[in-house]
Amino acid sequence: MPMKIALTTVGSTGDTQPYIALAETLVAAGHQVRVVSHPFHEARFRARGIDYAACGPIVTQQRLNEMLDRMLATRNPVKQLRLLMEGAFFEEGEKYFRQAKAATAGFDLAVSHMADFLGQEAVSQNGIPRIGVILAPAAIPTKYAPPVLAPNLGAPLNRVWWQIMTWLLAGTSNRAMRFLRSLGGTEQRIVRFSAHGPELNLIAASPHLCPTFSDLPPEFKVVGHWRLPEPDYEPDPALAAFLAKHPRPVIVSLGSMGGTKGEALTARLLRSLEISGQPAIIQSGYAGLFAEKVPAQVHFAGYVPHDWLFARGSCVVHHGGAGTSHAACRAGIPSIVIAFIADQPYFAENMQRIGVAPKFIWHHRFTPERLARRIQQVVRDAEMQSRAHQLGEKLRVENGRENALRVIEEYGAHTRDNPKRMAGV
Question: Are 289 and 262 in contact (CB under 8 A)?
Fold first, then answer.
């Protein structure tokens, strides 16, 4: 039976683009879908014909970049998350919550990003069953592996690592729960900057890139990454001419990273490419990477679908976000990660473990020389290129969207037949 399904999410393009893929899949299956998120992403959803409820304040690109500057000014990941929560999630949070609650009233089911605390609170107070979504399973405890960046010391000590991580993030988690209670909140439990669905959570990540272990709780289901099919893309004449002259260039795609330091970041990237001797395409991204005087071996581009662009590259220099990491691996080419914040080291470490990326570079340690050495290493490493090609073949046959559709429909039927088992409240 068709359902009215609300999709709630927050974050950058990498956090929202998978929801375009899921929304189109659900609509094609006959369901009525509404996406609930910030106004910043509205145009991209509506361009695909997806119903969208814009909630909360209108935030400019400049303001987002300034917030990232504040986060990057500290190397303390706990403080970074606190700044993110205050600046992105709870800025005019009551307004966002009220609008999200109104936009989801009367829906049958919600599918919510694990960090969308306000969206989850809205659907919970509306009595709507909700499914959680995890794009990066970096914060799911397991005795078989420690949290990202911690050494693996075996099962007993790995449990201690996870307890330490939970304790370090307790202040931020408790602050979020206090805010939700001020909205008349349900007893949502936020742990390690994550709020999960009470009965079901979809891990929308490739098992080939993001391993899970035998102690994964039963309410977590791995469905695979949600690839967004793009319409046939025709490059502009300048990009087409550059690729004809420089096949298989390095691709630089830092997405939402860079803050207001785009000019300085561009200069360092150009110097890296000069040292490496490799041609490159640099996507402008949120930071607006660009230079007036462009070397002949470099082309600056705006939006180009990752699947189309990465398939024509030799490797991708990127920030290690969930969406870009999956796109690079799906394209079958190696990655070089410059990590800034959050879950980026998690994807970087996994790609290094698989053998499709060298050791990542922290943004504050990024020098032209370091990046140039990695570029030269990657383009000359035939074994890494071969492993990346094999990994790409595996990811391209995954069908995470259809897997998610099946699980969502099964859960929807379950809650319809058990109306008292609503929202976990």
Answer: yes
* pTM, 2 dp: 0.92
Q: Which residues contact 374 (CB under 8 A, 6 or more apart)?
A: 336, 358, 361
Q: What are the φ/ψ torsions at residue 277 (nearest 5 degrees)? A: 75, 15
| pLDDT tens track for 144-179 | 999 988 889 888 899 999 999 999 989 988 988 999
Q: Residue 175 belongs to what H/E stretch?
A: helix 170-182
DSSP code of residue 193: T
Answer yes or no: are the C-beta atoms of 325 and 209 closer than 8 Å: yes
Backbone angles phi, psi at 424, to 5 degrees: 70, 30
Which residues have CB under 8 Å from 361's CB, separation 6+? 336, 337, 338, 339, 370, 371, 374
Given a contact cutoff of 8 angstroms between Cβ atoms, the answer to whether 216 and 210 are in contact is: no
β-pair partners for 7: 35, 111
DSSP state of 409: H
